[in-house]
Design goal:
Blueprint lengths: L3 E2 L7 E7 L4 H25 L7 H26 L8 E4 L4 E4 L4 E3 H25 L3 H17 L1 H11 L5 E5 L3 E6 L1
Antiparallel strand pairs: 1-5, 2-7, 3-4, 5-6, 6-7
Length: 185
């Protein structure tokens, strides 16, 4: 188990502020990277050479699955947040993303890396396993589209983890949804 801190220790100062919602440069980096990953996945699909025609019922199923995926993704963040006691997770729609956060707590570096990477690791393994196991081209494409959506949608999490990893060893992260403040000694 990890500990979530209610107060910032006096020796900690703000090292980095990530604000994807209000910082245009960071938002462009994340959104462009996400778009590159998404397009790259479909270029990869072209090299794989699987094609299928989707009917309208498949499109509705895909849209429904994407909404389910979003809740699973955020749910995995919630589970990781709850590796610490006494946390109350808040959900927010940001227009370009959904977030789960605990704005009134500070998480240590190792715990926050787990929080950030949990959906990327768990859902990547699940979707790649599904790709390997499905025998129908239709279900392969279906799982592949979900994987493309997943990987492109996880770019923001990967960016945040990358920034946190570049900070010193003694770091606390305050996640408020569309951004986070990283404090260190």
């Amino acid at each position: 188990m990890f500990k979530a801190y209610d107060e910032l220790p006096k020796s900690f100062v703000l090292r980095r502020h990530i604000d994807i919602e209000n910082n245009k440069k960071e938002r462009r980096i994340v959104m462009l990277s996400s778009l590159i990953v998404f397009i790259g996945m479909f270029v990869l699909l072209g090299f794989i050479g699987v094609s299928v025609v989707f009917g309208i019922e498949h499109m509705f199923l895909m849209i429904f699955s994407i909404f389910v995926y979003i809740f699973l993704h955020e749910g995995l963040h919630v589970i990781a947040f709850h590796l610490a006691k006494d946390v109350r997770v808040k959900y927010k729609w940001h227009g370009f993303a959904v977030s789960a956060s605990v704005p009134n707590k500070y998480f240590d570096k190792r715990h926050y890396i787990i929080i950030g990477l949990a959906p990327l690791v768990v859902l990547s393994v699940a979707l790649i396993t599904a790709l390997v196991l499905v025998s129908s081209p239709l279900w392969f494409i279906y799982c592949f589209v979900l994987l493309a959506f997943h990987l492109s949608g996880s770019v923001g999490d990967a960016y945040v983890v990358w920034v946190v990893l570049r900070q010193g060893e003694h770091v606390l992260v305050n996640d408020y949804g569309a951004g986070m403040k990283i404090y260190g000694i």
